[in-house]
């Protein structure tokens, strides 16, 4: 049963239910990595709105070095999203079961790398920012692109502003009083399922943030190891399916 559940979450065959369940898992991971990462590098690494705004502020104030630091974080996030898209499209053309699992496995490996080598990477300069910041931004871009691709942009795991906006929209619809219907005017109806999903995603991100902050406080960089293990467990089943199928085809040909 756990194997079948993991397969449904990350296999190439998607459903709205599996997209949302995987989104909840990844929102927790994103919240934990974002909050724990802030304690580690003193910067939120999924908040591109804030990073771009700070770049503009710093440029206006003449703090070119800080503006370039924001650019390094932004480029890392974009490259992470690009890498995820390339891996998914490459796997999709070959009809692999692991087209979404492979980027998750890469994310797990990078989180483990951050946990083991984070303290040493703090002093290594990357593209205008420490390598730790680039690594976390790359991971956030990688993950956000995975969920966006598999759910056709229905589910996001780091874009809390959008989720909260959708919650406000649906609550506004829910509280709206429909009067006598007029011809050509549909009544306003709230999408209760969308409201529920977005509320759960925000809560999952928040709980992940608490977990990540407490984990880093007590265990330091190694607190990312359980997150990496969770992602690897989710990714292993489709990867094993592809290996098993590839081995069976190879034996058949030889």
Automatic annotation (TrEMBL):
The organism's place on the tree of life at top rank: Bacteria
InterPro entries xref list: DUF1275
Native organism: Stutzerimonas stutzeri
One Pfam assignment: DUF1275
Keyword tags: Membrane, Transmembrane, Transmembrane helix
Protein name, UniProt field: DUF1275 domain-containing protein
Membrane-traversing stretches: 59-88, 100-121, 127-147, 197-216, 228-250
